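User: I'm writing a short methods note and want a consistent example. For PPM-type phosphatase domain-containing protein, I'll paste the sequence; you return only the structure tokens, no commentary, since I'll be parsing the reply automatically.
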Amino acid sequence: MGHGLCAMGQSGGKHVEVRGNRRRLLVGRVDGEAGPGVVAGEVNEDDRAVINGLDEQSIIDMVGGGRARSISSESRTTPGQRAMQSAGDALDPAALGLGHTCRKGSWDENQDSWSILTAETHSLYAIFDGHGGKGHDVSNFVKDSLPKLILKDTRFKTNEQANMISDVFKKTQSLVTTSDRMGKLSAQMSGTTATVCIHDHNASTFTLAHVGNSLCVVALALGTTWRGLPLMRAHDPTLKEERSRIERNGGRIVFDGHDSYRVYARNAHYPGLDISRTIGDLLGHLECGITAEPEVVEGKLAPEHKALLLCTNGVWEFIEPTDAVTIVMQFPPQQAMAATERLAKEAWDRWIREEGGAVVDDITVVLVRLDAKENSAEGSKTNSV
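Assistant:
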């Protein structure tokens, strides 16, 4: 990848373009939750034990040693922004150059979730965009479970991290299946995107994994201007390899007559997904070739890379990566929270303008200023003069 950003993995080291086709809804609302019934199966007792164990463990306790701080969205939905929960040492977003916001759109439930964990050597940033009638429940379950599975894995912080995170995504899908059979979740036709970034502070490297269309870009400084470099692609069912897998596994891809190509089971009118990789969506996985196998990218951050920006499709629907980066980088690192609010407002305004106020998607922004210490040091020098 150009401009000093060395990326390896399934992206082949190439710049990954964010596709520009418009996606009003991940799931066709006309289909609702109507389906052929429940995906049957016995409860996996090993998974049941894992689920119970994760419920009982604090994510901070799992970090082990050193200072650690965790903040994430709460499960309950508020009229505007989703409430925040925290654990561990007190987290000062301004000092760390961290920003986050999660705004409810037009629907009854805010189906987006997010999580940030910072420790001495590594941090983890994650966003999730639920869909379907119970997508908010699936999104929250995955938000609570997937980061813990990463921390529990012995390959975390080793050179096997790429394989580890891929296995964790698939294990999370298994836990969702088991939770559905236990009656804790309704995931037959509800699911979530998932985008997770593991950031190694000392090595200035990252490991990114995702399913769906919640994307991460890096802010590249070009003199006095900015460029947003996508680090991943949206999992569109019309992509050659995605279409091949879907059709090979019983699915079909149909244009919905408006804006999107959607995935349906053969001779059926469900699930109507317009992304080809998700966590949850049990019928889609069983009958349509939907998969929880993530694409994984590992890369090296360079001095000209000033921020990581993770957003759900509520942002990317109408805002290009460079525009988004330009908006948030108008603010200094200590105002990262204000920067995310500004981007979220711009995304909201564009939804209103483009859709005539008929629909606004949930909007989540997580901003990580990589230059926070750099700016802090410059500020200290200025103050000492």
